[in-house]
Structure formats: structure tokens, C-alpha cells
């Protein structure tokens, strides 16, 4: 990577325009370019960025969102969690037969696997860039306080979000909050509890700084509700059920969102159930997920939904009808996710990559309420999901049955969405029981991915390696 340590922006209009133009070119020319390109030995994080213009601060965050969309865990491309964790769990079957994807599908990962390394590396690069923005904005003398709060709030949200996904995949990890190379190259791993606490703190601060309303009409920049929606998920994972229910309720009650009963409208760009989404790279492109998952002839080029997953849908579930699609040659039939309907460009973008949506908040609150003994409230939220899917309401009064049904609805509501299924199996303690049956190569130690071998060699403080590798 090129050795660029600082980008300093003056306030004269022509200079601001020049820097903004450069940042825009970087943003759209390559998904592999970083906003601040610095030497990052073995994925460690260094550098400082200073901003004196709202335009360039916004451009810096735009570049980070582009990185999230086109690389790393949240990408809808085949290298992102929607595909990788779908293969690793029991949602997708691999058809690439590649030396990278097959070990994921067969639960035979090693510490030198390319995906193991790339998800780690790209994620910490994104975290580094978020930290650069946080420090640059806070050190700025030219930005109004409202702009500082908004931009730093966005960057704090991204930092928390990416750490959350790293924690689910790799277990205890370093929580990086700075850009000092000498510090970061010697970091140690924090416990899961410590990482969750740090994530929650960042999200709480982000929520206090972000504006109530969206700063862009396409919901591609986080606002206060976006931070609260993610905080509701984090609190649920932390078993802080009262806090999870409260945050979810705040989001659900926000006038910014409205429930949608037409399943074919939920993944549209202008859906009122979308809390936060990643904008497409150009004004005519649609989601990466559509390009990745949709195929029109067989065999599938990347992956397809597993037969046992398709057979597990409840009779009458309209999500099977509307969110999956078959492709047949007469002799063979395959199914692909059909939440996103468009695989190519259109006159204008109709679908973005949705990361957070309203249905999750209802299922978060349902689970949190059930765990607190509010079964009536839990069933009310749960049945909102079921009736929209064309299913009858649940009338059980047994806590364990309601919780089991919530997990079932999460499976069919969020399939192939950023690893929800695997994370739910992991946090519920049911991964071994489920995946040992559906995945013959499954071992209990597979609940975590290995720490990349190169990272352990570069920084012995990251030892020990996860069990089983």
C-alpha cells in the first residue's frame, strides 16, 4: 500500500473541491482502495487523518460505506458473511468446488485459509479507517460541532458494527480504538464480555451524537435509530433483555418506519421497514446480493439454497413463495434466495443492500419479552411476523415453545442475511445439535473460526489459537 499518512484539507473552495474530487475518484474506482492508504504490516492499523471540511468528512465516511458494501463481512458478494456463513451453517450448498469455499462448506477450515484471513484483514482495515475519521474529526478546528457529532457518530457505529461481526466469527478479539501502529501491533485479545461492553459503549455514544432523522433520503447513513437498532441486538446477545426490549421498542415506535405486509416490497430501496442499508456503487446498479444469489440456469455458479432448508418451511409460508425461486433443467432443480429480485443494472437503482430492518426489532423484542416472562407481549410481536408470512398465530402459553418458535421464525425471516442463522445457533447453544446432523464435518470446536495464521505469527500477543486449530 502507498505510504500516505496524512490528508490535510484547506477551507478554500477550490481546494475543498479538489480533495473531494480525489476522494470521489478513489471511492468509485476500486473497492480495494482504502480512504487513507498507509503501510499496514500484517493487517495492523496505523495513521492519522485530519478533516477541515464537511464535504471531505462526508466523503471519508462514504468511502467506508463503500468498503463495507464491496469487501469484508457485510459485503453481499460471494466473499461476505451472507454467503460464507450461509455455507458454514445449514442454509447454502457450495457449487464452486473451490479450495477456498469448500473448506467453509465442509467445516474444514484451517488457519491459513484465504477467507479466514481476508475477513479479518478487511474488517480491521475498515475499523482503522473508522478510527481515522473519529480522530480526524475530533481534532478538526474547522467543522461545526453538529457535523463533528454526526460524522464521529457514524464512524463509532461502524467501529462497533464491524467488531460485533468479528466477535461472532472469531471469538475473543482485539478491540481497536486508535491508529497508533506501535500500540496496535502488540494488541491482545479481549474476552467476549469485554468486547460486548466496548461495542455497547460505542453504540450508546453514537446514539447520543447521531441526528434523529436521516441525513440522506435513501437511509444509507446511520441516524440515532440505526444505532439503537444495533444496540437492541447487542443487548439481546448480552442477555440484557430489558434493555434490548426498550431499545427495540424505541425503534418500532419511531414514525420513520412502517410495517409492510407485502413481502415483495420489503427489499426495495424505498421500503419503510429498512432501518439502514448500503447504497449501490452507481445510480443504476442494484444490490450485490442480487448479483450473487440469483442465477437463471443450472448448475448454480456460486451457491444455492440447501434442499433440507427448503423442505423445512412450514406449509403455507409465503416467504418460501416470495423469497425463494426455483431453476430447473427438467432433470435437476435448484433454489436461490429471491429476496432481492434484480441481478443487473436498471435505469435507476431499485434495491440497495439492507443491513438492518424492522422485522428484526420485533423478533428481538419478542425474545426479550419471553425471557422476562411477558408471554403475551412476546406472542404479539412473534405473530406479527407469522401473519405477514401467511401463517396462523401462535397460542402457546409455554415459554420454551415460544422461544423455540422465535428462533424458527428468525431462521426463515433472515436466511442469507449476514450470518444471522449461524450466530443464532451459536448464541442459543444449539449449533452442535443442529449442525452435527446437517453438516457431517461439524465439530464442536467449529463454533469459532481460527485466528489467521499470519496474524498470530506477526503478533504473538494474539495467542493462543482458538481450540481445534
Q: Could you walk me through the main structural features you see in this protein, from its secondary elements to its overall organization?
A:
The protein has 469 residues and is mostly helical. It has helices spanning 13-29, 54-70, 81-88, 101-105, 114-139, 145-170, 181-184, 192-209, 224-237, 241-252, 288-293, 307-311, 318-323, 358-371, 375-388, 399-413, 420-428, 431-438, 453-458, and strands at residues 92-94, 274-278, 303-305, 324-328, 333-337, 353-357. Strand 4 and strand 5 (333-337) form a beta hairpin. Helix 2 (54-70) runs parallel beside helix 6 (145-170) and helix 15 runs parallel beside helix 16.
Radius of gyration: 22 Å
Percent of residues in helices? 40-55%
- Taken as a percent bin, the fraction of beta residues is 5-15%
Q: What's the N-to-C terminus distance?
A: 30 Å
Strand order of the largest sheet: 1-3
Order of helices and strands: HHHEHHHHHHHEHEHHEEEHHHHHH
Could you tell me the number of beta strands? Answer: 6
- Describe the biggest sheet? 2 strands, antiparallel
**Main structural class:** mainly alpha
Shape: globular
Averaged pLDDT: 91
Amino acid at each position: 500500500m502507498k505510504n500516505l499518512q496524512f490528508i490535510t484539507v484547506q477551507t478554500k473552495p477550490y481546494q475543498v473541491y479538489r480533495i473531494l474530487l480525489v476522494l470521489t475518484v478513489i471511492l468509485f474506482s476500486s473497492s480495494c482502495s482504502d480512504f487513507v492508504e498507509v503501510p499496514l504490516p500484517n493487517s495492523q492499523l496505523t495513521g492519522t487523518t485530519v478533516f477541515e471540511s464537511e464535504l471531505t468528512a462526508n466523503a471519508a465516511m462514504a468511502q467506508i460505506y463503500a468498503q463495507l458494501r464491496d469487501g469484508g463481512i457485510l459485503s453481499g458478494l460471494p466473499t461476505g458473511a451472507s454467503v460464507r456463513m450461509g455455507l458454514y451453517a445449514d442454509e447454502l450448498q457450495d457449487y464452486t468446488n473451490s479450495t477456498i469455499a469448500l473448506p467453509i462448506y465442509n467445516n474444514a477450515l484451517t488457519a491459513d485459509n484465504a477467507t479466514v484471513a481476508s475477513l479479518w484483514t478487511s474488517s480491521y482495515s475498515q475499523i482503522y479507517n473508522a478510527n481515522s475519521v473519529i480522530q480526524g474529526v475530533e481534532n478538526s478546528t474547522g467543522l461545526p460541532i453538529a457535523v463533528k457529532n454526526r460524522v464521529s457518530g457514524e464512524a463509532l457505529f461502524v467501529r462497533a458494527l464491524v467488531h460485533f461481526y468479528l466477535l461472532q466469527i472469531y471469538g475473543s478479539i482485539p478491540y481497536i480504538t486508535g491508529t497508533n501502529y506501535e500500540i496496535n501491533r502488540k494488541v491482545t485479545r479481549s474476552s467476549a464480555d469485554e468486547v460486548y461492553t466496548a461495542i455497547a459503549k460505542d453504540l450508546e455514544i453514537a446514539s447520543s451524537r447521531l441526528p434523529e432523522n436521516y441525513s440522506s433520503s435513501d437511509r444509507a447513513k446511520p441516524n440515532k435509530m440505526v444505532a439503537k437498532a444495533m444496540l437492541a441486538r447487542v443487548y439481546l446477545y448480552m442477555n440484557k433483555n430489558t434493555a434490548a426490549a426498550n431499545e427495540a421498542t424505541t425503534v418500532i415506535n419511531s414514525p420513520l418506519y412502517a410495517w409492510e405486509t407485502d413481502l415483495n416490497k420489503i427489499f426495495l430501496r424505498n421500503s419503510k421497514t429498512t432501518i439502514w442499508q448500503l447504497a449501490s456503487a452507481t445510480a443504476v446498479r442494484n444490490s450485490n446480493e442480487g448479483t450473487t444469489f440469483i442465477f437463471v440456469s443450472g448448475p448454480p455458479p456460486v451457491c444455492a439454497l440447501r434442499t433440507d432448508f427448503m423442505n423445512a418451511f412450514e406449509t403455507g409460508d409465503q416467504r418460501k413463495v416470495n423469497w425463494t425461486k426455483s431453476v430447473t433443467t427438467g432433470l435437476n432443480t435448484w433454489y436461490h434466495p429471491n429476496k432481492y429480485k434484480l441481478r443487473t443494472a436498471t435505469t435507476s437503482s431499485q434495491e440497495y443492500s439492507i443491513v438492518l430492518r424492522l422485522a428484526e426489532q420485533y423478533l428481538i423484542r419478542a425474545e426479550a419479552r419471553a425471557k422476562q416472562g411477558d408471554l403475551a407481549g412476546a406472542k404479539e410481536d412473534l405473530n406479527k411476523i407469522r401473519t405477514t408470512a401467511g401463517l396462523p398465530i401462535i397460542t402457546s402459553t409455554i415459554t420454551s415453545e415460544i422461544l423455540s418458535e422465535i428462533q424458527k421464525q428468525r431462521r426463515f425471516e433472515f436466511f442469507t442475511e449476514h450470518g444471522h442463522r449461524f450466530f443464532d445457533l451459536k448464541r442459543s447453544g444449539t449449533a452442535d445439535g443442529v449442525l452435527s446432523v446437517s453438516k457431517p464435518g461439524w465439530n464442536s470446536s467449529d463454533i469459532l473460526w481460527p485466528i489467521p495464521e499470519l496474524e498470530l505469527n506477526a503478533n504473538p500477543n494474539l495467542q493462543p489459537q482458538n481450540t481445534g486449530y
